[in-house]
């Protein structure tokens, strides 16, 4: 049995393209075999150090995992392995990100140059060090704890898929790509902004927003950021928090009710998003707004 404790998971969140499990290992694990999945598995060390051994191609391979190091396992692959914690407290932590193979395929198809084939290099590595992956894993862990909505996860998953394909599968050479970006004019932008403003209380997806703009998802994210100076998720959060502020100032609904109306699935996720944006909690904001109103 693996002495491995699950200390957090995104399983109960409305995340469709990415499953995130946060594990803590202690002591050592004798040889065991992982289960095959239909996803690309990315394991990122987030705390402490461990030594792992993996049996591949008839022999054992050893690698050091310390914070920032990562490993990749392709879909359908099982791994025979063992590990041992190296630090004084005998513990280490890892983030296990399971990326949907369907989304990776969509990203590859969107960016693949016409007339070329996919790279044959698999997304598989015993150990790699990539600051972008390490930073993103930390951000996604924080997003899981704050119960970020699905549109955040969708943006993060597609960015991670593109990064893995470009940097670790050799599928794209930017200097050889001469395609012009898809058009994203004023009317398309206005249509998307109107859609977001009228549906901010619902669970919006990048696919739905890109459909409003009539362009592909990846081009939509890039072009939206160019035009608005922020990602679609950041803009949606701005709309939601502005609406919440109005409701808190002028209504008597509970904080939880306002959070649900503004698209948040729990009071905790609403409070976290509100605090990041406004600098205080919804309850404190409402109390201070009423004090100011009574003074006028």
From TrEMBL:
Alphabetized InterPro entries for the sequence: AraC_XylS_family_regulators (IPR050204), Homeodomain-like_sf (IPR009057), HTH_AraC (IPR018060), Tscrpt_reg_AraC-type_HTH (IPR020449)
Domain HTH araC/xylS-type: 190-288
Highest rank taxon of the organism: Bacteria
MF GO annotations: DNA-binding transcription factor activity; sequence-specific DNA binding
The entry's keywords: DNA-binding, Transcription, Transcription regulation
Pfam families: HTH_18
Keyword Cell cycle on entry: no
Ribonucleoprotein found in the keyword field: no
PANTHER family attached to this UniProt entry: HTH-TYPE TRANSCRIPTIONAL ACTIVATOR RHAS-RELATED
Record protein name field: HTH araC/xylS-type domain-containing protein
């Amino acid at each position: 049995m693996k002495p491995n404790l699950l200390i957090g998971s995104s399983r109960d969140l409305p995340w469709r393209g990415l499953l995130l499990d946060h594990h803590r290992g202690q002591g050592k694990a004798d040889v065991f075999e992982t289960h095959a999945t239909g996803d690309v598995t990315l394991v990122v060390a987030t705390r402490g150090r461990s030594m792992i051994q993996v049996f591949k191609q008839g022999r054992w391979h050893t690698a050091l995992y310390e914070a920032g190091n990562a490993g990749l396992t392709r879909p359908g692959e099982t791994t025979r392995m063992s590990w041992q914690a190296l630090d004084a407290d005998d513990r280490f932590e890892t983030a296990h990100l399971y990326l949907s193979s369907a989304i990776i395929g969509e990203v590859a198809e969107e960016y693949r140059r016409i007339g070329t084939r996919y790279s044959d290099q698999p997304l598989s590595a015993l150990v790699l060090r990539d600051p972008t992956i390490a930073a993103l894993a930390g951000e996604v862990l924080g997003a899981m704890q704050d119960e970020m909505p699905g549109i955040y996860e969708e943006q993060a998953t597609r960015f991670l898929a593109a990064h893995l394909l470009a940097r670790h599968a050799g599928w794209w050479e930017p200097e050889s790509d001469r395609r012009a970006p898809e058009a994203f004019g004023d009317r398309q932008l206005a249509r998307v902004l109107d859609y977001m403003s009228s549906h901010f209380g619902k669970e919006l997806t990048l696919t739905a927003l890109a459909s409003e703009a009539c362009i592909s998802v990846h081009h939509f994210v890039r072009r939206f950021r160019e035009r608005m100076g922020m990602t679609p998720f950041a803009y949606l959060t701005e709309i939601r928090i502005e609406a919440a502020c109005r409701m808190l100032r002028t209504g008597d609904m509970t904080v939880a009710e306002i959070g649900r109306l503004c698209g948040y699935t729990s009071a905790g996720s609403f409070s976290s998003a509100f605090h990041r944006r406004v600098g205080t909690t919804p309850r404190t904001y409402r109390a201070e707004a009423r004090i100011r109103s009574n003074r006028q």
